[in-house]
Specification:
The complex is a heterodimer.
Chain A (H helix, E strand, L loop, with lengths): L1 E4 H14 L5 E2 L1 H14 L8 E4 L2 E3 L1 H12 L3 E5 L4 E5 L2 E5 L2 E5 L5 H11 L3 H12 L4 H9 L2 H5 L5 E3 L6 E4 L3 H10 L2 H16 L9 E4 L7
Antiparallel strand pairs in A: 1-10, 2-8, 3-4, 3-9, 5-8, 6-7
Chain B lengths: L4 E5 H13 L4 H13 L19 E6 L5 E9 L2 E8 L14 H13 L6 E6 L1
Parallel strand pairs in B: 1-4
Antiparallel strand pairs in B: 1-5, 2-3, 3-4
The chains are: A alpha+beta, B alpha+beta.
Chain lengths: 222, 128
């Protein structure tokens, strides 16, 4: 039995949820709502806190982590067929959202083990929720979410659900697996390594501009 | 295939020096593992769960002073062969916490310097 941090757990959880959408998640609003319903259906594990906002239940932390997973290259994001995409100079302006999907499904088995450690029912609840609600028309999905009593009773901006995941979590992985998972789920590290990999592909290293050291320094030599 | 280049940033040189001062008894192991990451970079320590196709097979971790010791994380690109050391941990495995480890910040600074062409902050090494 090993341990992982709460944020690594959240990223794994989110990857698993996205991985259950056979055709990808159509838009961030849908992803928010599905995660909310999952937590409602399995309240023992609540990775994300949600507030009531103009477009319903919203988790800022989930939104940030989704962006991190995209930047890490684990989640792909392409404009929805219904999106209106315009070009502003070099920047693409997407009004209408993205389809979100896993770029590689090989991690699902390990994500499953992580989630099962937190709550044996959790992977099944996620799969069933995505199956039941994941591809409902957005208006119908929103209507369902707006009818939840806790949502109707809340004021805009008010917390509806608080996260109950923090600190270090025991998971049914070896210490070595946990260690590698922490590195693999570190958004700054992985994003930086992506940039490095791309930079090395795009241009040659100007070796003549790089100073050479006779040997690695030892204390007292530098 | 051309010989692998070891490309070391100032940030890693600082870590390397500090490690030798704080863990003199593990200095030989540090040198051995650095040498391995340079001469046999893709033999051991390939990180699991790196599923991004752009990075598969490019990130490695070796243990210094054995698997209860300290972590050494590096980037290796096989074409052209290049090894870039990124991170050393200073706490033994039992005291280490990824929540506070600066691996992300270090990687960002190293890659930013590479991206912006500040190659004077990097060094090639003739010998360890």
């Amino acid at each position: 039995m090993g341990q992982i941090s709460a944020d690594t757990f959240r990223r794994v959880y989110l990857l698993y949820v996205i991985g259950q959408f056979s055709k990808g998640s159509y838009g961030s609003v849908r992803l928010q709502k599905i995660n909310y319903i999952v937590q409602r259906n399995n309240p023992t594990v609540r990775p994300f806190g949600f507030k009531k906002w103009r477009h319903g239940q919203f988790s800022h932390q989930l939104d940030v982590m989704k962006e991190q997973l995209v930047s890490m290259g684990y989640v792909g994001a392409v404009p929805l067929d219904t999106a209106i995409v315009s070009q502003m100079g070099d920047e693409e302006n997407n009004q209408g959202g993205n389809k979100l999907f896993l770029t590689e499904f090989a991690g699902l088995a390990i994500y499953f083990r992580v989630l099962k450690s937190a709550s044996p029912d959790l992977p099944g609840v996620i799969s069933q929720t995505v199956k039941d609600f994941g591809y409902k028309p957005e208006a119908e999905l929103l209507d369902i979410c707006y009818q939840f009593p806790e949502f109707k009773a809340a004021e805009e901006g008010q917390v509806i659900v608080e996260s109950n995941v923090s600190g270090q979590l025991d998971v049914d992985l070896t210490d070595d697996e946990c260690d590698d998972l922490e590195i693999a789920m570190n958004p700054k590290f992985i994003s930086a390594m992506n940039r490095l990999s791309d930079a090395l592909k795009d241009r040659e290293v100007p070796w003549d501009r790089i100073p050479e050291l006779e040997r690695m320094p030892t204390p007292g030599t530098r | 295939m051309s010989e692998c280049q070891l490309l070391v940033h100032d940030e890693f040189l600082e870590q390397y020096l500090r490690f030798q001062i704080e863990h003199e008894d593990a200095s030989d192991s540090l040198r051995t593992q650095l040498q391995k990451s340079w001469k046999d970079p893709a033999i051991d320590g390939r990180l699991s769960f790196i599923l991004n196709p752009r990075l598969v097979g490019k990130l490695y971790k070796l243990w210094i002073a054995g698997p209860t010791g300290y972590r050494y994380v590096y980037f290796h690109d096989p074409t052209p062969p290049i090894t870039l050391p990124i991170f050393l941990s200073f706490e033994p495995r039992s005291n280490f916490n990824w929540d506070t480890a600066p691996i992300g910040d270090l990687a960002e600074r190293i890659v930013s310097d590479f991206d912006s062409g500040q190659f004077d902050k990097f060094h090639t090494i003739k010998s360890i």
